[in-house]
Amino acid sequence: MNTGRVTETARPIAVVTGASSGIGAATARRLAAEGFEVLCAARRGDRISALAAEIHGRAVRCDVTSSEDVAALAAEVGERCDVLVNNAGGAYGADPVSSADLDQWRAMYEVNVIGVVAVTKALLPALTASEGQIVVIGSTAGQVTYEGGGGYAAAKFGVRAVVDTLRLELWDQPVRVCEIAPGMVRSEGFALTRFEGDQAKADAVY
User: Fold this and answer.
1) 117 pairs with which residues across the strands?
2) Of the residues 19, 86, 103, 200, which has the maximum number of CB atoms within 10 A of its CB?
3) Is-catalytic flag, 109?
């Protein structure tokens, strides 16, 4: 018997890492506008909580370099994920290779490369089950180098290698893999983080 009640269809699920600002926050808002339930994942809990409330999504505090945080993110996602946007990343410092801060280089590799691999690996079963899509936010720095950008470029070249390898390895799986490689994008935090809070240096980049 038709009761006249309309059953609400579950919204498709999207996960955006690095959702607390910049490209990540903008992506989360756009996906929500397109009808997705967005899991906003980032280290800054206050920011993603506010964003999730704004777009009727879910906030998940997650440092992509932490195996425990990534496992918790996967548990929160559950068995279905339609879109994963690997956006978390960052640049630290702008020293030439000859005077490179190796701790900064390691940190960039951890967040930009290992973080993408860790989150993708953790969510791949849910993405496969949903015939979903992996989107990796790379950079034009993964295609061409520049002075003072050796560490960041090396990490983003690594990201590109991960994307290309995934395409080959997942050819027989119902999962799409793509990379978006933005050029210079002015956001409130990227350059400021790179120059350790020096606003003048950050502004000069743009």
Assistant:
1) none
2) 19
3) no
Q: Are 137 and 85 in contact (CB under 8 A)?
A: yes
pLDDT tens-digit series, residues 146-188 = 888 999 999 999 999 999 999 999 999 999 999 999 877 656 6
Question: Token pair for residue 100?
Answer: 């490179």
- Distance in angstroms (rounded) separating the CA atoms of residues 35 and 83: 12
Predicted TM-score (pTM) of the model is: 0.86
Q: Which 3 state secondary structure label does DSSP give 194?
A: helix
Instruction: Give the C-alpha separation, 148 to 134, whole Å.
Output: 30
Q: Which residue, among 70, 51, 46, 166, has the nearest Cα to 122 in the 3D structure?
A: 70
pLDDT in tens, 73-100: 999 999 999 999 999 999 898 899 999 9
Please name which of 43, 51, 32 lies closest in space to residue 69, comparing C-alpha atoms.
43
For tokens 């690594």, what's the residue? 158
Q: What is the 3-state secondary structure of 72-137?
A: HHHHHHCCCCCEEEECCCCCCCCCCHHHCCHHHHHHHHHHHHHHHHHHHHHHHHHHHHCCCEEEEE
